[in-house]
Fold each of these.
Amino acid sequence: EADIYQTPRYLVIGTGKKITLECSQTMGHDKMYWYQQDPGMELHLIHYSYGVNSTEKGDLSSESTVSRIRTEHFPLTLESARPSHTSQYLCASSETRAGVGYNEQFFGPGTRLTVL
Amino acid sequence: GQQVMQIPQYQHVQEGEDFTTYCNSSTTLSNIQWYKQRPGGHPVFLIQLVKSGEVKKQKRLTFQFGEAKKNSSLHITATQTTDVGTYFCAGGSYGGATNKLIFGTGTLLAVQP
């Protein structure tokens, strides 16, 4: 069982509020990711990190920001939430193994965000 | 940009019938991974294929990676109600950021008992 946690699991918030979605993993993985997924749709990568102090934007443009100050922690922040941000946000992690380019990603349970 | 499409988008089968989902990339992939997401759940890794023409089996599931490394398929033999969920392929690109995957559009499988 993967040890990756997300809080809150559900969040209903008004327009204009600042929110932070938490993601933590206890597996010591160096790589972490944030995906956005609308119901029944594919996952879109919005942010990723190769390690501490390393963050990059993903393929889907997002108004959110991320930080990676500690290996195990990768929070996502929205400065001013809007209804268009309503979606499910999934956090994932993977480890780097010598000689292996791609490794499986372990996903957290997700945060379902609704902005009114 | 790179796109990964899956067909069909949705499949409804009777329990015991076979099921196949196909994954097609617009570019050559270095590898393909498959994930399963149960309704209301999160994606769970199933398998990774790396070699051209590779075939792997997991019990009733058979995974294939095309010779040109641009397509893949997942076949389930004799479906069970526990197979219900959305199946995603995810491709990694050559020369791209290591471990950055492009997820396919997914195939939702419904199994009627």
Amino acid sequence: SAVISQKPSRDICQRGTSLTIQCQVDSQVTMMFWYRQQPGQSLTLIATANQGSEATYESGFVIDKFPISRPNLTFSTLTVSNMSPEDSSIYLCSVPQGYGYTFGSGTRLTVV
Amino acid sequence: AQSVSQHNHHVILSEAASLELGCNYSYGGTVNLFWYVQYPGQHLQLLLKYFSGDPLVKGIKGFEAEFIKSKFSFNLRKPSVQWSDTAEYFCAVRTNQGGKLIFGQGTELSVKP
């Protein structure tokens, strides 16, 4: 099964700054998904990142706030821009794997 | 838009009690269904999945789930829970629209020893 390396595992950031999260997959995948898990809540899909095209964002999420790059079939980044305390969450990437999905270990972001 | 609803926000059981967690989805087409578990401080783990065939699916750690198409449901069951089953449980659905996985709100299960 695919292995995802997600970095950083956690960070504490000042409001107004930006953080870029990286996901590296050990095999080529067409689609990568970015999720947010706010404290005590479920996973919410932010966007689908496809190689060679712009990411597709879900309702409530915009490219200016969460720009995504997908330079090749094994790598993607999600940037959380102009952060506020409401952005404090766990951010996860995920890839389809066989008949299921594999998830990264997550990035725990705290905005102060 | 597709959605997934988990009826129970927090379930508290004693060890050896039986468990059933409800999950309903809203989508009229073909779906793939999943249950994930998240133990405290750990990553999401796949418990079981349904794609086709026998609607009664058996997963890891003694869990099973039944897909009832007419009720748009995929309830998770375990005959006898253990303290180690304390975790957050997420139902998820994938439709044929974009391959994305949509999660329910999650159910926190607390098992008292």
